[in-house]
Amino acid sequence: MRNVLKLNHSGFIDSYWFYADLLAIASTVDADDAWLLNNYINLRSVESASYPFSLHFMNGPYFNLMVDYLKCPFLKTERLRKDVEFNPSRELVACLKALIDSGSYIILMVERREIETYQINRSRPSPHEIMIYGYDDATETIYFADNTKTGKYAAKLSCSYASLRNAYLKLNIPEERELHAYFYKIQVHACSTYSVQRSTIKAQLADYLHGRSSVEPYTTEKVFYGIYIFDRFLAYLTLHLKEGFVLDLRHFSLFYDHKKVMCERIRRLLPDLKTEYRYEEVVKEALLIRNLMLKYRMSKEKTILLRTMRKMEALKSKEQAILESACVALD
């Protein structure tokens, strides 16, 4: 038997699995892309002693990576215990197949070194979440989605039943990690009452432009929002020049994702927007910044980093001017 659930990966967000998986699943029933357009507007960065820089979308009050799955009206998301749902009398793959046959997508943590698709040769553990959405008994193949070792999200990955069993059984993570004991089951459903909300988009754009968050007004952490992310990037790169720590390139990928989604939002909602600059120029510059950082990781040439910082500084004022006009035009 073969059963492969539908996915619709648009390519707007590739930086992190928890954003890309949600969109790939929800957009199979969200024909107007209302969830995409209403969200992924504001950005959030936390400064701590452990991490000099972090970057995520700010769609609502943040408490864990799965917060948007519980909020999205096109999804029914359940957190389930592995020791209960994976019946000991049934083999793992049989349990997963039964879930898929019920129309459920599964987010499960595995040891990626055991899955040939990743081609991971390092000795240290590589635990990670994958989203399983299909199987084929004839070839004993499991279909799943995840970010590959290049960092890019891929929706059409596969592995053998045997590899998945090993990846599940050899997972070794601390018990305090949520997915040590749990997995997520996700089902889709149509929601005719949810639509594109121009007033909500305008309010979030205003938050972004003022570097604030109306949905998270109080926090004990040192948090930065919206347009101030440009300044946080510059501080992050300056600190790297001083201390030499390894840069996390996923931040630059998410930065590029943010610009891709914003460009699509403006294209759909404000096709006649007249500004000095076109937002497509912002997207192009964000892609160049990401690619420059990839080049810097290979060469370690300081001139590349300094060029990136100059571009980041110039891009801030260009984006600000366009989004201020967009905010007015949304009235």
Give the helix/strand class: alpha+beta
Domain module count: 2
Mean pLDDT: 92
Shape: globular
Organism: Paenibacillus sabuli
Protein name: Butirosin biosynthesis protein H N-terminal domain-containing protein
What this model shows, in words?
The chain is globular. It is of the alpha+beta class and 331 residues long. Helix 7 packs across helix 11 (302-329) and helix 8 runs antiparallel to helix 11 (302-329). Strands 1, 4, 5, 6, 7, 8 and 9 form a seven-stranded antiparallel beta sheet that branches. The chain has a three-stranded antiparallel beta sheet with strand order 3-2-10. It folds into two domains: 2-31 and 75-188, no CATH class; 198-329. Helices cover 42% and strands 18% of the residues. A hairpin with an 8-residue loop joins strand 2 and strand 3.
